[in-house]
Amino acid sequence: xxxxxxxxxxxxxxxxxxxxxxxxxxxxxxxxxxxxxxxxxxxxxxxxxxxxxxxxxxxxxxxxxxxxxxxxxxxxxxxxxxxxxxxxxxxxxxxxxxxxxxxxxxxxxxxxxxxxxxxxxxxxxxxxxxxxxxxxxxxxxxxxxxxxxxxxxxxxxxxxxxxxxxxxxxxxxxxxxxxxxxxxxxxxxxxxxxxxxxxxxxxxxxxxxxxxxxxxxxxxxxxxxxxxxxxxxxxxxxx
Length: 239
Fold this sequence. Notes:
With 239 residues, the protein is α+β, with helices and mostly antiparallel strands. It folds into two domains: 3-197, NADH Oxidase; 200-239, no CATH class. The protein contains eight helices and four strands, in the order αααβααβαβαβα. The protein has a four-stranded antiparallel sheet. Helix 3 runs antiparallel to helix 6 (141-153) and helix 4 runs antiparallel to helix 5 (100-113).
């Protein structure tokens, strides 16, 4: 166990319940020792037939890394520009500064603007052994989640995105990524400018069913103090 691991010793269950999507970072770099520990955890993930087809490209502060970050920042701006319009981030409840939608819009604006300056950017890739299929994500996304949980354990944070999709052609040429290898995820990492904390989700009874579809299992009861999404809280108030 490295010295950084011992500084941020949390249980696995605590990590699962408190690993938020972190989009704001300080300027503090992530040391190579910490990156090694984070990426080691990623390589321990399961994959289909244990083929271990996942591959990660990690970009820090080299000239090419800065070029990759700027390129993906272009994709981020394009995606957010479309999403903010399509999902109504400029209308409805978003006009209230204190609404969840308005807060998310501000966070995303800051995130895509500062994308070229994130301390670490990771591309999660999958070396395919068959034609693209809906199940192939099972061989790369568990490794991405391991990565995010390990970052949480070491006091860092991150978020998984699909920003690469808007500039994939340029990325492939720049990084010489071969055909037959999918770019599956863009992950940013850094020291959180805010903090981790309990994640908010819908109640278990809305997500975990028993013998009948749509009916929450009788034992699916959230632990005391569980926080739910603001959308669910507002919906409950309306009833």
